[in-house]
Design brief:
The protein has about 210 residues and is an all-alpha fold. It is about 70% helix and about 0% strand.
Length: about 210
């Protein structure tokens, strides 16, 4: 239960930051706010749950062999629940404002590629700085993860909306930042990115 609560809280605050920064007028600085919030939540919850806050990361860590199969459904449920409540609270109550519904129907191939690359980067960094015996006990893992998402959001935000996370993708739909019609695009890209990251990690590092 402690792990699930931690995953709920971390995902909740990640999505609160994402929604408020995008809809609240932060403008070009939104990726920085999102990345810094993720950084803080990773440091806060890493020692309890591993600080996935992302079903794609949970999948990658499971495939890598550092997340028990029995934990996977609970982690994913907690992540989706935290994201849903956060998006409803942020857009429906705090701001009382919805997005314009980003349409990716004509650029879906580019969007899928962007989500694959961004999700791969997130998962690859997590696997290397937070699950490898060679970096065990380091003090930089939260910074590495948070800044990776900041950089990827700056890079790919205009192409796909920069979800890199099925729970965030659902939240973008709830807040109409990105249309619900785009969920399949996010799902395909994020699963592929997570799987590739996990197996390249295993090839490069082995299953220590």
């Amino acid at each position: 239960m402690k792990k699930l609560l931690t995953e709920f809280i971390g995902t909740f605050f990640l999505v609160i930051a994402t929604t408020l920064c995008i809809l609240g007028g932060t403008g070009n600085l939104a990726p920085l706010g999102i990345g810094v919030m993720l950084m803080g939540m990773v440091f806060a919850g890493g020692h309890i749950s591993g600080a996935h806050y992302n079903p794609a990361v949970t999948l990658a860590v499971f495939l890598r062999g550092k997340c028990a199969a029995s934990d996977v459904p609970g982690y994913i449920f907690a992540q989706f629940l935290g994201a849903s409540i956060a998006s409803l609270l942020a857009s429906g109550f705090l701001l009382n404002k919805m997005g314009s519904g980003m349409d990716l129907s004509t650029t879906f191939s580019q969007a899928i590629a962007a989500e694959i690359i961004g999700t791969f980067a997130w998962c690859w960094v997590v696997l290397n700085v937070a699950t490898s015996k060679d970096t065990e006990g380091n003090s930089f893992y939260g910074i590495a993860i948070g800044l990776t998402i900041t950089a990827c959001t700056f890079s790919f935000g205009g192409i796909s909306g920069a979800a890199f996370n099925p729970a965030v993708a659902l939240a973008l739909g709830i807040s109409n930042i990105s249309s619900f019609k785009n969920l399949w695009i996010y799902g395909v890209g994020e699963v592929i990115g997570a799987v590739i990251a996990a197996y390249i990690f295993l090839f490069a590092n082995g299953k220590d």
